[in-house]
Amino acid sequence: MDIGENIRHLRQNLGLSQAEFAQRMDVTKETVSRWESGRSFIRCNNIEKIRTVFGVPVEHLLGEVAPTRQDVKLPVADGASRAEGKAAQGEGVFPAYKVDRSASGTMLRYLAQAMAPADVAQRHPASFFVRLDSVDLAKVYPQGCLLLADQRMRPYNGCTVVAIVDDSITVIRRFQAGNNTVVLSTLGLKAPQPDLVLDKRRVCILGTVVWFQAGHDVTPD
C-alpha cells in the first residue's frame, strides 16, 4: 500500500472529507486529492505535519509496518494496493513521473502509467517510475529511461535514489551515507556535477532504484 492510499485510509478512518482533512493540514482539497491519487508527491514537511497533527507513526504512512490496535487503523492487509493487484495479474502497472521545475525548485510531476515485468512488480509492489531526462547518470543509465524506485527499500551505499533536498529540490543521484551526512553524486560522461554533501536531516529519500527500462513504455491513463 502506497502513501497516497495510506493517507486516504487515515482520512476515512477519522471520518473526514477531503476538504476537512485539507483544512487541518492547511492545504487545498485539490492537494489532498492529488496525494491520494498518487499524482503528486507529498513533501517531507507535510508527512511530518500529518504525524504531528494526527499522531500517526511515519512508518505507517509510508506503509513500512502494519499498524497495531493502539494506532489509527490503516488497513494494510485487507486488499492490496493498485500496483500489487496489477502485479498479481501479471501486469505490474505503476505511476510514472518526471522531474519538473516549480516555483520553489524542482518536483515530481505525474506523467502517466508504465508497466514493469510481473516478477519485478511482485518483489517491489510499493514503487513508482521516474523518467531520467538528464545525463547526470549517463555512465549507469541511458537518458530518457524509466527508473523504478521502491519506496520501502532502505537505500544502501552505491545505490541510486530519488530524493528531495531541503524540501524543495528533487534529484536522482548515487547515494553514499556516513554517520550524519549523505553524499549524492552524479556519474555523467562529461565533467561531473559537484557532489551534494548534506546533513541527513536535509534529505528525504522517496525511493531506491531497483530496475530500469526503456522510456517509451508509458501508457496513458
What does this structure look like?
The chain is built from seven helices and ten strands. It is of the alpha+beta class. It folds into two domains: 3-79, lambda repressor-like DNA-binding domains (434 Repressor (Amino-terminal Domain)); 91-219, Ribbon (Umud Fragment, subunit A). Strand 5 (160-165) and strand 6 form a beta hairpin. It is globular and about 50 Å long.
Total separate domains: 2
CATH superfamily of the largest domain: Umud Fragment, subunit A
In CATH's first tier, which class of the largest domain applies? Mainly Beta
Major sheet attributes: 10 strands, mixed
Annotated CATH architecture of the largest domain: Ribbon
Distance N terminus to C terminus?
Answer: 20 Å
Individual helix count: 7
What is the strand tally?
10
Strand content: 25-35%
Helix content class? 25-40%
Strand order of the largest sheet: 8-7-6-5-9-4-3-1-2-10
Rg over CA atoms, rounded to whole Å, is 17 Å
| Oligomerization status of the protein chains | single chain
Distinctive features:
221 residues; globular; 434 Repressor (Amino-terminal Domain); 26% helix; Umud Fragment, subunit A; 10 strands; single chain; ten-stranded mixed β-sheet; 2 domains; alpha+beta
What is the topological layout?
Layout: H1 3-13, H2 18-25, H3 29-37, H4 44-54, H5 58-62, H6 82-88, E1 93-102, E2 105-115, H7 118-123, E3 127-131, E4 146-150, E5 160-165, E6 169-177, E7 181-185, E8 196-199, E9 203-213, E10 218-219
Parallel strand pairs: 1-3
Antiparallel strand pairs: 1-2, 2-10, 3-4, 4-9, 5-6, 5-9, 6-7, 7-8
